[in-house]
Amino acid sequence: MKAALELMVVLIMKFEGCRLTAYQDVKGVWTIGWGETLGIKEGMVWTQAQADAVLRMRVSQFLLGVYKRAPMLWLEPPERAAACGSLAYNIGLGAFNASTVKRKTNDGEWEAAANAFLLWNKSGGRVYRGLTLRRQRERGVYLSASQS
Question: Which residues make Cβ contacts (< 8 Å) with residue 123, sequence separation at least 6?
Answer without folding.
Answer: 26, 27, 131
